Amino acid sequence: MKQQKKVIGIIGGLSPMSTVVYYSQIVECYKSLVGEELQYPRMIVSSLNMAEVDSNRKHCKPSHVLRVFENAAQDLQAADFIVIASNSLHIVADDFASKIDKEFLDIREAVAQELLRRHICKVLLLGTSQTMQKSFYSDFLAQYGISSIVPDSRNQEFLNNLVYDQLCQGNVFPEADELLARIVKETMTQNSVEAVVFACTEFSLLNKNLPLPVIDSTELHVKAIVDKALHG
Description:
The chain is of the alpha/beta class. The protein has helices at residues 16-34, 50-53, 62-75, 93-99, 107-117, 129-133, 136-142, 153-166, 175-190, 217-231, and strands at 8-12, 43-47, 81-84, 103-104, 122-126, 147-149, 195-198, 214-216.
């Protein structure tokens, strides 16, 4: 029987829905690899108040987020490595990783490695306004020779509102998948892209039946987390 080598530390609550997705997917992925009943991974979650971290809904103040995350890391002293259960708040990932005394597992790295594995060089990056408009995500992928494009401003606004008004509350209205597919098709007609990156943890709640391959950041991050927990 496989034994867990490293305890998982999660900074969550950003939103609670995405933290639920992380927790449940980590448990299921771990069980599938261990292959034993009642074998669940050891993990510690520091669940934050999203209103105090990202109340602006579009562009947070990185210096404030960094201070909050440093405090959250104190809750995770018994963990062996730390992850942030949010794409948009990886805006402080590089600074955060340099300030903690534990290994940090970056969601962008998991995405980049999957794109490299699949020889994908140009993607449609979908997420919150912060993820699409700031460069912390696209610049990270560019280090690996992967270019990113984003939807126009109107569709960015729609996606941002979808995240905060619906998905963060656990609501997936029937038209969401149809509207998402429309955004992808509109962008495809104007740009040559090879895949869609779901660079928002809440997007795991949506249908992946799109006209391009979907790279789900949450799913990939979860696999990397479980691999780290089991193999170190």
